[in-house]
What does this fold into?
Amino acid sequence: MTTREPSLIRRAAIQQGDRELRRTALRFAEDFRELRLRVGVSQRAVAEAIGVDPSVINRLERADPSVGPVIRARACAVLGADFRMQLYRERSALIYDAGHARLVDRLVNIVGRGWRTELELSLPDRRSVDASFFARHAVVLTEVETRVRRLEQIQRELQSKRESVIDKVGLDRPIHVVLALPPTHHHRALVREHPALIRTTFPASSAQIRAALADAALPFPGDGILWVSGSAYSSGPSPVSTS
It folds into this structure.
């Protein structure tokens, strides 16, 4: 797996982060102004209520991203609204730990002839897929995670990415989703705790997926969890089956 130059990562993080901040500030400005007008108070009244100069509220409504969260939260409180800082995962991270890169490398080494590999497949909604494999009879979208806390969240993300790929390339062959995990004690326990979810959303076993990726002549078994192990992650007995 290729590693981006630090300068490229920095530039991309600044550009993407600043762009999203401007969008957020614009949405906030529109919503705040609409609520203020509905309540029927002036910018000056809001400013006086929270002890700032009226120009600050004016900047807020002009979508100035430099207006800080403390001012935004207090201004919202005056209008009877809550200000919340939230994040939504919309794309792949620009940086990963070394373990993630090793897992991707080991995953790619599993794949045999007959499959075309594409790393970080870009989707129409600005997200990407860690590793995608294309054969004449199937497409396999694989997300590589070093540690998962909620299987339901990952399953929803994978389903959403499958739908985006369908929008991008069409549905001329089955599109399967695979979650690649190191077989740690944590992940083995997580799978055991959710047998119904595994049966319904990840029915294919790791052994079946591994065999199909190694030999493109085999039919692909469907969605599932693929255990990708290595010296950094191997410990204890063989991982549990996901079938």
In short: DSSP finds nine helices and five strands in the chain.
